[in-house]
Amino acid sequence: MPHVEELAQHYHAKVVFMQVVEWDQAKIDPYISSLDLFQKLVELQENQAESYLAGLKGEFREKNIKACSRVIRGAIVETIINAAECEDADIIALASRGRNGLPKALYGSVAAGVLHHADLPLLIIRSCGLSNKGRSENAI
């Protein structure tokens, strides 16, 4: 986040921290058969995301950077792009793990999808600390 912090301070920008929780049951775990269990898992992911983003938001606010957070259900790439449009963002910053396939190996599948579909500048930051499959921490 130091890159995002530096940009926000330099341009007196608001940072929107966002995490997308994919709602497609098959993408989360193909062995979950109970809709009730699936709903509880999604709610758990949302609660964890809200807690994580609240911490980031607090850190930025302590440094006098305007910040807010959003946890949104949906398809990751489309949700990031739609949120950036709704927030009238100037840039999208993504932490990327860089897995799967040649172009994806350079910057990750979510970053590749956003890069190919967004009309905004994209700051991709290589991250080694993301551990949950299907989880993406994003700052718009």
Protein described:
With 140 residues, the chain is an alpha/beta fold. The protein has helices at residues 2-11, 25-28, 35-62, 76-86, 102-107, 109-117, and strands at residues 15-21, 67-73, 92-96, 122-126, 137-139. Helix 4 packs across helix 6. The chain is globular, with a radius of gyration of 15 Å. The model is unreliable at 101-105 and 130-136 (pLDDT under 50).
Which architecture per CATH?
3-Layer(aba) Sandwich
CATH fold-type name = Rossmann fold
Main-sheet strand order equals 2-1-5-3-4
- Please state the CA-atom Rg, rounded to the nearest Å: 15 Å
Number of domains: 1
Oligomer: single chain
Any low-confidence stretches, pLDDT <50, length ≥5?
101-105, 130-136
The CATH class designation is Alpha Beta
**How would a crystallographer describe the biggest sheet?**
5 strands, mixed
CATH homologous superfamily designation: HUPs
Arithmetic mean pLDDT: 81
Helix-residue proportion: 40-55%
What would you call the shape? globular
DSSP summary: helix tally: 6
List the helices and strands in order: HEHHEHEHHEE
| Structural class computed from helices and strand pairing | alpha/beta
Distance between the termini: 12 Å
Quick overview of this protein structure:
By secondary structure, this protein is an alpha/beta fold. The protein has 6 helices and 5 strands.
Essential attributes:
Rossmann fold; globular; 5 strands; five-stranded mixed beta sheet; 140 residues; single chain; alpha/beta
Topology (elements, then pairings):
Elements: H1 2-11, E1 15-21, H2 25-28, H3 35-62, E2 67-73, H4 76-86, E3 92-96, H5 102-107, H6 109-117, E4 122-126, E5 137-139
Helix pairs in contact: 4-6
